[in-house]
Every structure is written in C-alpha cells, then in structure tokens.
Fold each of these.
Amino acid sequence: METTHKHNAIILRLEKVKKYFPIRRGFFQHTVGWVKAVDGVSFDIEQGKTMGLVGESGCGKSTVARLILKLLETDDGNIIFKGRNIGRFSEKEMKPFRKEVQIIFQDPFGSLNPRMTVGQCIEEGIRILGVKRASARKERLENLLNMVGMSYDSADRYPHEFSGGQRQRIGIARALSVEPSLIVCDEPVSALDVSIQAQIINLLKDLQDQLGLSYLFISHDLNIVGYLCDTISVMYNGSIMESASSEDIFNHPYHPYTKSLLSAVPDPNKKWDVTLSLEQRYESDAVYDGCKHQKKCPWVEKQCRKNPIDFVQVEANHFVRCWKTKKSDLKVI
Amino acid sequence: MDKRPKSHGTPLLRVENLKVYFQGDGKRARAVDGISYEVHQKQTVCIVGESGCGKTVSALSILGLIPSPPGEIVSGKIFFSGQDLLKLDEKTMQNIRGNQIAMVFQEPLTSLNPVFTIGDQLGEAVSTHKSMGAESLKRYMIQLLSDVGIPSPEQRLNDYPHQLSGGQRQRVMIAMALSCDPDLMIADEPTTALDVTVQAQILELLRSIQQKRSMAILYISHDLGVVSAIAHWIYVMYAGIMAEQGNSDQIFRSPRHPYTQGLLASLPSLSKRGKRLYSIPGSVPNPAYKPTGCPFHPRCPHTISTCRKEYPNMCDYGHGHMARCPVLYEKREHTE
Amino acid sequence: MNPGENHIDAPDYIEAPLAPKHTRMQEFGRMLKQNRLAALGFFIFVLFFLCAVTGLILTSGTKPLFNPAMVRLEEKLRPPLSKPNLQALRPDQVPVLNVYLMGTDDLGRDVFARMLQGAWVSLTVGFVAVGISVFIGIFMGGIAGYFGQHHIKAIHILFFLCLIGGIGLVLINAVFAGTALLLLCLSSIVFLLSARDKLPEKTLPAWKGILLGNAVSVDTLIMRIVDIMLCFPSFFLILTVVALLPASIYNIMIVIGLTSWMGTTRFVRAEFLSLREQDFVAAAKALGIGNFRIIFRHIMPNAVAPVLVSATIGIATAILTEAGLSFLGFGVPPPHATWGNILSDGKNFIFDAPWLTFIPGIAILIVVLSFNLFGEGLRDILNPKLRERH
C-alpha cells in the first residue's frame, strides 16, 4: 500500500502474512489438511494512529494478534516493525523488541495471574525495563496505576477483588509498564458491561493522546471500531476483504461482506434493515477455489468461483478484494 | 406497534413487586429487589440491563428455577394467565414449563447435550408434553426445524450438536422451545454468543415466528441495539430495581432516568468520532454491598441528599412511560 | 443536562476495589471454619505432628523418659492402664507415670512408648517419601507440560542408552563390552557437535537424517515412562526392592518416594497444559519474561494447589504403605518400633491381648483418615474458582 500519507511513519506493516494450522487425524495423527487461519494478510499501522481489525469469530483476527506479538511463528510473509522484519527473528533477537509491542486481552478474568498481587503483576514489566532501585520502581508503579485510574492501595490486592472493568485497567497498566509504542487490543471491551465500556474506550484514547501510542484494535463491534479507529480492515476467513478509512468503510463500503456486516448491526438511532445479512446459504465443507466469501455472498458469479481475487485499490486508500469494484457494479448491487 | 395496548384486558404475564434474595457467606444479596412488569399477548417485551442487575434471576423465577438455597423468593406475585405461579406445586409447574412457557438460553453449545443427536433431544422435548406416534413425531420435528430456517432438516435430525454452527444450534434451541406451542417464550440473551450477521438472522427469525404463532416473547439482553430493533416495550433494570419503562421511542428518544441517559450517551458510534464519550463513573454495584437509597446514586450526576436515603418512587411521564427518578421529574416540572 | 459534555478526567475516578480485603491466612481460617471435616482433619494433623515430635524427644537419648526398648519379661501382656508390679521391677524399669497407659506387649515393653516412637517413624516416612515424589512429580510434570512439544532426536536416545548400558556393563565387570558402548556414546557426542550448525536436512545422507530426526516429543517420552511405572503393582515393586536393599528406614522412604511420583506428574502436566494457554502467560511472554521465570513465578503458584492436595493424601498412603511393609516384616528393622510392626507383633496375641492390635490399628486409621479429610478440604479451600464466588 504505497499510497499512505507520506508524512506519517509506518510503525507496523504486515506483508502477505500466512499462518496455517495442520488438521491431524487418525491413529498416527498424520496431517490431512490445513486450516488457513491467516492467509496472506497485509496492512499498515501509522505511528500514533489506531487501526481496527473487524471480523466475526474464527476469522483469524486473534491469530493475527498473536503473530504480531510473536506468540506464534509466522509460516510465510513479513512483519515489519519500525523498519525491521521481526517475522523471522529468533527468541534471542526478539528480546529488545518484546517490550515494544504489548497486548490487552478480551477476558479480564483470565488475563491476570490469580496468585499475584496487582503490584507484583505490573512490577514484572518495570523489572524488564531495568529499573533497579526499589523506590524508583514504587514510584513508577504508582504512576502507572494513577494513569489508568486506579488508586495505589490496589497494588497489594489480588485480582479477584476487582470488577471486570478494573481488571481491564490493571491489564492496561501492565501493558504500559514496559513503555511500548504499539498496543494490540484484542477485543478489550467486549466482555465488559455497557456502562464500563465507555470508561475503557476513553482511557485508551487518553493514553494514546498522552503517550503517542499506536493501536491495533481488534473487535467484532463495528460501532466501537467506527468511533475509535482511523482506518479499518475487514477480515473474513483469514483474508482482508476491505480496508479503508473509517468514514469510507461506513459511508460507502464496496465489499458485499462489509455491507452485510454493517446492515446487521442494530443501532438505536436508526431503523433496522436486515435485508442484506439475511441472505443465507447452506454451507458445505467442499473445498473451493476463488473468492473466500463466495459461500455467503448474495451476488456470487461464475468468475468468483474460479480465480483467487487480488486486493485492488478502488479509491485513494481504499482497497477491496472483490470483482465488483466499479461504480457501475455498485449501482447494480 | 409503539403504543402500549392498555385497554387490552389482563396481561399474559404480570409480575408484582418480586423480591429474590440470595444468601451466602453471611451476607444477603438482593438480586431482585421489588420489580413489577407485564407481558401482553403477541408482544415482545425486553428487559435490558448490565450483568448482575437481576434480569436473568427475574426470568428464572417465572419458571420456578431459582436454586434454593441459596436463592429465595422473598415476596411478590407472578400471575400467568390468571394463576399465581409462586403458589403452584412442582408438578403443575413442570407442566407449565415447556408447555406454556418455554425458555431459550444464552449458550447454544452447552444447552444441547453433546452425546445425543438433534432428533433425540428435540424428540424428547416434544414427547414430554405431547403424545404422538414415531412417524408423526418425525414429521412434526422436520416441520419445526424447517420453521426455524434450518436447511435440509431431515439430515440434521441425525446430526450431533457439534456438527452444527452456533447459529444453527440456537435455531434448534428455538425449535425445541416452540415444540409445544408456548404462549410465552423467555429468551435469555439468545444472541450474545453469536456473530452480528447470525444475530440479525436469529432476531429476524424470532420476529417472524412471533407474527406467525401470535406468541409473547420476554427478551432479556444487555445490548441496547438489539433491544431497539425488536422491542414493543422495554424495561431497564439496574441493580435489582426497575429504573425505567417505556416503548422504544420513549426510551431511546427521551430517556428519563439518568442511568438510561448515561447508557445511551456512552454508546460509541461513528457519528461521535472525535468527541469524548460520556461514561458513567464507577462500577456496577455488587448485589451484596448495594448502596442505600437509590442504588444508582453513587454514579449519578444528579444526586441530591435525598437520593442517598430514600428509595426513589416511580414517576409517570404519560403513555405508560415511567422512570424511577423523582429528581429529574421535578426538574422537568420546573422547566415546563 | 447534556451527558456528552460531562467531562471526567482520569484522576477524578480513581477506583477502589470491590470486595473487602482479606489476607491469605484470614481466608484460610474462614474457609476452615466453614468446612467442619477439614477443620477436624487439620486439628488431628497438628495433634499428630506434635505427638510425633514430642515422641521423638521423649523416647530418644541414652536415658529416655519413655523407653520403648525396655524389656520387662515379668510384666508381659499387661492391659492398658494397669499398674506395674513394683516388687518385680528394678527402679529404672518402672514406667514414668507409674502406669502402663497402653499396656505392655509380649516382651513387657511399654506400648505407649513404642507408639510414640512409631509416630515419628510414620511422620518422617510420610513426609520424606511424599517430598521425594512431589519433587520428581513437579519436575517431570512441569517439563512435560511446558516443554512437551520439543522433540528429542534419535541421537540423544542413542547417547543415553549407550551411556547407561556402558556404565552398567562396566559395573558388572564386562569391561570390554562396556568400554565399547562408552566409546560409541562418545562418538555420538562428537557426531552431534559436528552436525550442530549444518545445512538443511535434504543435503544429509539418509542415516544422518534418521539420527538427527525428531524421534519422540518430550511429552510423549515422559508420559510413557509414567505409564510404564504405573503398570507395576507398586506394593510388590516396593517389596522386591526392599528385599534386595539392606533394611533401613531411609531406604523405605526413598523407595516409597520413587514409586509414587506418577500421579503428581500427571496432575502437574495437566495444570501446566491448561495454564500455558492462559492469557496471563501470553502477557508475561509478551513482556519478554524468560521461560524459567514464567514457569516458577507465573505458572507454578497456580499449579501447586492440586499438588498440595494430592500430597496430603499421598502422606496418608505412604504411612499405610510403611505400616504394611513393617507388618510383613520388610520394614524398619526390629528393635525400632513402628506402628506396623507393633501391629504385626500383636497379631499373635489378638485374643489374649487385643489392645496390641487395636491401638496401632486405630492410630493408623485416625491419622490416615484425618490426612484424607484435610486433603479434601484443602482442595475446596485452594480452588480459586470457588473462592471468587461471593
């Protein structure tokens, strides 16, 4: 994607990243096929910006998060972070980069160690940063807790004493403890109550303004992504279907999948129209070539079934993986 | 559809001043603390609230499914087509469950037994309340499955739950609930575990079934968007009390309770980009340590001294729209 | 009112925790109070511990207060609480409280003194044997659970087989064959070092490829060893080993420990497998924390709870095993009293002196039962899922 704004440095670039998981069957556990969890994903994240990765469960968006954090090894493709290809780095080479990228998890209950106090948990990161003096560590801990809106007396308490929203704040403080430049947010608010979601979203925004962080925001909730993100990539079945600025995705989407997603979201401020997402086909397990969305696409044609489709640019900074990208096609749809 | 049919005689379900407390650890958690609501025939009524607000407990108590101990229905009445369900014995309740009131749960994966086929489980649900021969039972089941939009239902009968997708499993659950032509279906967050596009399909399915079968639906959800899409009448619950009730226009266009106002203002959307989201400060109270007076007062921007002491009254805004906040009610009277 | 303009700065809503604070000990006490049987088990556990320690002090030394080895042939098979016959005894033979609290045995030895001495034996056997088995169990289980996917190369297996075989042959004086095997072992090290930084596999000849290929995963290897160990009927394995080794209390502890670590290994492996996938471990990895610290600081504290439970119950089993061995005469050698050999000695006089059978029998029953109850209670107390629900 060479047409991104030149004045903004790109902090993270994924180039055709692939991750296949083997399907093993039988007595000897031999490989009978591959689950293409991530199948050639490319995107850029600009310094200080938020990119949203949207998709339904099982589309591979969490796998992308784990690949970026090197919790999983990529099978193919490049992950370029601040100009270095970290995709093929070994554990040792990775060490200085580890603290640059951090993650916030979805489940506020599983993401904190139940046997460590909040203070111990956050201090693990401060230790990594190499702060030696105990007083300096304490000061930093207090700073971090205040930054996420928690009081310092929380430090010697255990996670089970906190509510979901508070635990999520603690998780954010832990991520910030190593002074990262990119944070991967893997559905950070979807397990929280509605009235708490806004608190965490505001906190993430404030931290971005204060610290100049970049976010990769993974979510299935289009409303949150639309509010928070500068650019959005829509993922389906391991591939990115459409990628553009938030306004473009919401106001004139090209890809039929994006359209059906948008139409499915009920919004209190709008009359609900579900006609697009109601098209349902029976899914067979048959192997198929061509477009990944063909099984669910209401406008599938012969050519969709034959050839894989390239990611093409339809407007400035607007990319779509669909044959029907001309304006005239849109009118037909 | 927006006006509540007041004159339509007695409601199908009427819950009066229901209180359900849970005992444990020497503390008493007031999970449901004096709520009243009604469900009329052919209506979709939504109870919306956050986790721990008592919405699920209030639904389970209709079916007499509150685990006791630790739970206890302290007071209140639940009238279902004229009879008080709380006074019935277990045997009569079993007959009503499934036969007249059916329930659909949140987790479509765990509410189906993984070792039996769809046909086994659906067949059992049907034959518990209806007696019919094997051939007609099968025909009936196929009819049910195709009613809920499952493709090639005959083959699906021999499938095990893990062979179906989440949305299809939820459809099977709905088919089970429909199997005995219930008058009331209670749906407890049936789409929370599903993807948005599947959610839209299930909601549409519920809507069409309701029209076809003229059944009432009590829909429990935390998602304001879903509620706005399907509800004829909405109850907003907070910490065991009914904060506000009204139709979707009243609730979403002119909310009268500070909690509802805060919730709506805190919903993110593309149009709010760049602006700071309003957020309700603090956390949802633990039912065992609920604040005195109005349970919302520690998080409310309009709190005055009486809120801390007195339990707030329901204030009537006309056309059935009511909110439990006297402070805003008085403010309104002054401005008008 | 316009909620959109209600601006809240972060410091204004600093949040306090929801639940009141408890220390670990307070929580432990509270849970113990709720679980009566566990509390009873814990109480007997403490009592037994005190008995064993005071028993060691009172029965050891050159002039012990209670002498378990003092033979009084005139006073044999006296029932509990009987008075000694002062005329027949030398002054140093008179029991301390001037009464045989639990009677005497067929040699006129004070059963109370012997029980005290035996309590210490039971306690040490229980703790040391379980200590050994837990140590091995955590080590093996931790490796299988955390590093399970790593593979062992064929050459590694060859190396170890040659090493063990070589040493074994040398030890049984087959020097020539032994040396040959050790040389093969050495050559495999040389081969391994030479192949260290070599090219991709396709350039290797077939035999090298096989030797350097992945033979078996660490997890499979360890778990199959566990399965093999479980195949032996362990009591008879212990009997065989004890019959070969010189009779000593330490040999028994070690043998019981070495034959009972499999359950712990399975527990720890299962815990590690599920904990390894938890988000907090992923977060620790993302922070750049090393494997060693993740294992011991992040995973282990979460994995020890079930181990502690099984260890408590394991102590009971070890005490029973020791008593069984002593009963069969394979246990601690005779002058030293253990509950098992008191029981064994008493069985000949079960109709004349039933207390010789009942006293150690009931003692074993109570101690084993209390450990089991305490273990069960500990399982409830240590389960964080049960704890969070309030």
Amino acid sequence: MNLKDYPRRFYAIDQFCQPPCYELIGQSFRFIMDGGYDYELKITGKETCQWNKVGEEPENANYDCRKADDTTYLLNYDLVKTLNTPKRVNHLYVIDMEQRLVTMVRCYIGDNPKFPLLVRSEYDFGAIEAEGKELPFKRHCFTGDMMGTTVEWHWNTEMWTQHFYNSPAYYRITWPQDSSATQNIGGNFEVLPASDEISQYVKIKDNMYLYCLTEEMMERIMGDKSPFRSNNMIFLQNYDRMYHCGRTFGSVTHDGKTMPCRVNFGSFGNPVRLDPEWMTAENPFTV
Amino acid sequence: MIMKYGGVYIPNLANDGKYGIGQYRFPRNYELNGKSFTIEADGKTYDLAFTCRERAQLDGKACDYESLKLEKDTYFVRLGQDIAVINVEQCLATLILGDTFVYGAFKGPDGKLPAARHARAGDDMTDTKIRWVLGPNKYVNQEYIGGAKVRTAWSKNTVMIGNGMKSFRDNWEAAAEDYDDLPYTAVKITEPMYLVEIKGGVREGVCAPKGTNRIVTLQDYERMMLVGCVFGEGFEPVMITGYAKFLD
C-alpha cells in the first residue's frame, strides 16, 4: 500500500504538533510573579490541574503541556468558569526548570465593547519558588533579539509559511505559491492592506523565545468576513533546534456560528531569503 | 523598521543548524523515569527499569537510554545499542536486541496481559515513496519497493543558503541521485505507525555520518513525522526526528 493514500484527516497547523507531555504529573509549583500576585499550580493528571492565586481557593482546569527543549515547558489551560461565556480567559506558562523562571501570559476575550472577540494579553514575569533556595534575580524579558529574523515554518506536509520579525510590535507573514497556505488562508490576507499583525517577543534563554501574535488587524478590518476572529497564537520557538510548539486561543466563525478556536500546533523551520522590497515595505497600520 | 541602507548587519536567528541529521530531534522525554516493565514474550521475560533520566536496566544490565515520544502513549527508546518501542495504552512493547526482534506485552493497570502483539507489517509499506526531512536541507528519501527492500538516498552534505539560493527548498528538486537498495524490517505498532529498521551503509559526502550502518525509526503516517536513531561505527548514536514529504 502506498501510505500516501492512508485516509488521514485534514490537518491545518496541528499535523506537526509534538505529542503532549505528561512529565509534570504530580508536581506542584509556586510562581512568585513580579505583577504582585503569586500563583500556585498543581498538576494532578494527564490533562487535569489545579490552579489558584496564592490565598484563594484552588480551581480545577484541563491543561495541555508541550516541551520546547529538555527542561522548558509550555503549559496552558482555559478557566473553567469562563468556558461557554463571551468572556473566556486562558492562562499560559513557560515553566523554565533550567533557570527556575516562569513567564505567565493571561489572555482575555470580551473586554473590548466595540470588538468583543478581540484577545487582550497580559504578560507577567517571575520565578519558581524552591525550598531552601533563593529566588533568582534574573527574569525572562521582552526583547529585540528576534528583529531581522526570516524563517520558513513547515506546519504540515503541504503548508509552509514565511515569517519576518521586523518590528518590536508587529510581524509580517507571506508564503510561496506552492504552499497550500495560498488556498487555506490566503483569501483573507488579499483583502487586508498588509499581512502585518500585532506581536510581542519574550526572551526565555539564548536561542529560545516566546513569540506571541494576535490577529487583531484582521478582526478590526474584516470582522465576520474572516472565519478567524482575533486568533492569539503563542509559540515557544527553539532556534537551537529550529522548531516550535504553541497554541491558539481565539474564536472561529463557521456557518454563522462563532465557536472557540483552540488548537495545539508545532512546526519545523529553516532559514529563508525573502524579497527585500516586501521586507522593507511600510507597515500601513502604524505612523 | 530595521532594514537600513549603508551595510547595517541585521542578525537572523534562523539557521541551518549545528546538529547534522539530529537537528530536529524532539526534546528528550522523561516520562519513563522511575517506571519498570516486565515484558513477556514467547515464554521469556525481560525486566526493563528506567532508574533515572539517563540510565536504565535491562535484565539487570545497566545502560544509558534516550526516549523520544511520537504519540501520546508511544515511546521510542534507545537502550545503549538496542531499541524498545513501548505503547502504554496497548501494554505492548517491541524490543530490538542485537539482530533479534522481540514482540512482547506487559500487564496493564487491570493486572492482565493483553493477548495481542505487535507483528511484522508485511507489504503495508510497499510502494510508499517518502522524504523524511531531519533538518534544514538534511533529508533521506525512502522508496519501499518489493522484496523487503527500500531504495534509500540521503541529501548531500551541507549546501549553505549563502550560495545564492532563496530557500532551502530550492535544492530539493536536485534530488540525490545516488541511491542504494537496502534491506528493511517493518513492524506495525498501531494504525498507521511502523517501526522500521534499515541496515546498510551510506555513500561519501552525504549528510548522514560516515560509518552509518543502521537506522531505526518509528514512522507515523497519520502525523507524518518520525523519531528514531542512527547507529554506526565511529560515532555515538544520533537520535533524530523528522517530518515527511511524499515524493509522488
């Protein structure tokens, strides 16, 4: 049998996603956060955890966890009490066991009265408490290290996209004609004046970055003409190995119904040269 | 904007890697740490214990190990120069000990030994033509032809992007002409995941290390990814991960 003909399902960005990681089962963490509120996280099973702000009652949640290197974990869960409401909340952590540091991203849907599907993100840096040890002084941090990077990401056997991290607050995306991105996602971008989208960049360690993008321009300009409604995508990118893992948190509209868009993804990368004229074109969304 | 006139150096984090064919290797998986398995096969038992993150014991004999996870319940483990594929949902394990394949099972949470075993894949893979990309511009083409042979060709060693290519994919169509028909053994682990051992050397000037004589991979044709290990003389085993492109 030619295994090309095996009846596999349709994949978008989740085909090359790493399998889930269960290494943290049984572990408990206290994260001392610079934002002033500390968090506790207890991993109770393959998919279950308990979390709370210190001093409050624990809440159950279903989590997902992947690894970006041998000692760095990307873990996230939706707040159960916000599920099936217009104001969903997602907590995401980069748990860095090598440096005993943590980055927490809290994402909120429903805050913006004009654009109720927009995702707003809060970034909080901190350290992992360990008995008998002082907290490290250093922190993960916002960074400009990624500026100038051009990288081609392979998401499935037929789709690859090319990213240019050109600005501390935006990024730019394109793809070659032979990528299935042309059919799968290209239509929306043809309507927009440019593919630039809001981004933040956080340095975790040398050659590892938390890259966060929110498809905010698409939501503001296209609204319900696009199926993807302000998708927040967070990638933990490992440039030592040239791959990443990540998750989406947003909404998708299909046949008039809007539903949560929650996908775990991964891709493999390689360097790429891009058209200098495209790279240096002005960002139409900024002064 | 960061592009300026006048020769400003703009760094680029994306790179073609320093790990050779091991470039895309997934993070090591430590879920087996502290676990032990009594694997029963053909009237024999094999006691496999993972004593810490890097050391294991097989029938009391210590060895180093590396584990990569390909699917939520399936682990590919290098035990020294041997291999174990462990599926904790099926409670099945296949071992490759030297030249011997062992198809075993271990008791599940209910205390029962499953009746099923992994088994040879027969002709399942015949006619499959695939490229496994193991790193930027590092790949191996595999065409599974009849007679338990696989036509294998590795990419040439190190073609840097600095020679004017726009993309590493520009070099993919200049496929490696030098192929070898090598014997393979395939074991069906789940539908459609296969454990494949290919024995044989590699030509001069390819991306696989000189001295390579065996490649063992766990190939997932649903997710189109593989994990595995390349063995040979003169180098330590290289754990690998890759993604697939069909060649037809």
